[in-house]
Specification:
Layout (H helix, E strand, L loop, with lengths): L1 H27 L5 H12 L10 H9 L16 H16 L5 H11 L8 H12 L6 E2 L7 E2 L8 H12 L14 E2 L13 E2 L4 H5 L3 H4 L18 H4 L5 E2 L2 E2 L2 H15 L2 E2 L8 H7 L8 H21 L2 E17 L1 E13 L3 H4 L8 E2 L11 E10 L11 E2 L4 E2 L4
Parallel strand pairs: 10-13
Antiparallel strand pairs: 1-2, 3-4, 5-6, 7-8, 8-9, 9-11, 11-12
Helix pairs in contact: 2-3, 2-4, 4-6, 4-7, 5-6
Amino acid sequence: MKNKGMKLLLILIILTTTLLSPFKVKAETNYVKIETFIRQLVQAMKLDVDSTVKEPYIDAALKAGILKSDQFTDYEGYITTTDAAVLLNRADEYLNKSSLDEKLYKAVLEDRISDIKQIPKEKRGDVAKVVAKGIIKGYSNGKYIQNRSFKGNEYFTKTDAKVTLIRLMKPSKRAKLSPDGQLIRTTNLPKNADKYEYILECFPNSFYEKKFMYQRTKYYYEPKELEDYASPVKVIEAMRSLIVEDGKMIYLNDWTDKVRLNLSTRLNVDYKTIEKNNTWLNNLSSTYYLFERADLDKPLFDDIKEYIAFVKKNKVKIESEIISVEPSTLYDSINYYMRAYVKFKVTSPNFDKIKEDIIFYNYVSDTKPLVEGKWMECVFDVGLGTRNGSSKGRDYAVNPANIIVYPD
C-alpha cells in the first residue's frame, strides 16, 4: 500500500509539473532578456558590430557608451523597465544629441512620475529624460491624476521593447507632453478641443466641455474674442499688460500654485488643528490679494478668523482626496479663470444647520448640493485677479469668491 501511495504521489507531481510548466514558460517568455534588448538596440541603431569577438552586440554597445561595463552581472536575466530606460536614454543622446528643455525635464522629474522614489537615485535622471522625450509613457494613475506611475521594477515586455525602439528611432512617433510634463492625447477629443492648445490624457472630455464664464454671461451686444473674452487657446494674445515670453505668461505656474494652495486649504479643514501655529490662516491668506497694509488687509483676516471660530464651534472637518488644477484651461472673461477638479467630503454634527457656510467663502450648486460624509466630485472655474492697476502678473491672486458648480 505504501508503494502504491508513493507511485500515485509521483504521478500527480509529474502531471502537475507537465500541465503547469508550459503556462509558466509562456508567461516568462513575454519578457525580454538583457542580452536580447541590447542586441535589438544595437541593430536598431545600426552600430558597427565586430563579429569576431565573443559578444559582438555587447561589445558594440560598450564602445558606443550605451552600456557600461559594470551595469549588469548577468546578461541572461530579464531587463527591468528602469534599466531599459537607462539604455534608451543613452542611445537617444548618442543618436540625436538634442538638448532637452530643462524646465520640462525638471517638471517630469519632480512632479510627473509618482513612483520616482522607488527608482535608484543614480537612474532617476535617465528615467525622467525618456519620459520627458516621450519614449516611455508610463501608466495612468486614474482620471484627474496629473502624474503617472513608471513601474520601473517590472520586467520589460517584448511589446515594450518594440514600441520604445520605434520611438527611439522615429521621434515623430513619440508621445507628446505638455510644457509641464503631462501626457497629451490626440484622439477621442472633446467637442470644443479647438478652444484649447492641447488636451491631456488624464482629463475626461466632460472636464473640457463645461461652459466658460463668458458663455454664461448675457451680453447686450455681439461679444468679440480678444476684446470681450479669450478662450484658453487665445488667452496669451489677450494679455496686453502681462509679461509674456516665448508664448507663455511667465507667472502662469505661480497662478496655478496659488489656486492649488487655495483649494487645498479650503478643502482640508480640521477643527482640532485649524489654529495650530496659524499655518492654515497664513496659507489661505497668501492665496488672496494682499495690500501689505494692516488696515486694508484687515477685512480678509477678519473673515478668515471668523471662519476659524465657526469651524471650531461646529466641529467641522473637510477632507480632500484629489485636487487637480490645470493651467492650460486659463481663459479671460473680465477676470482670468482656471479650471479645477476636486474630490472632497465634509462632516459636522451641525451639518444641516450650517452647510451653506461650511466651506470658506461658501459652496454653491443647484445640482450638486453638499451631502455630509459623501465624497463630492466637482469641476469648476476659479477666478484670478489683482487690485494693482499696473500689475504685470506677479501679484495676481485668487478672487475671494464662492465655489460655484454649474450643471454644464
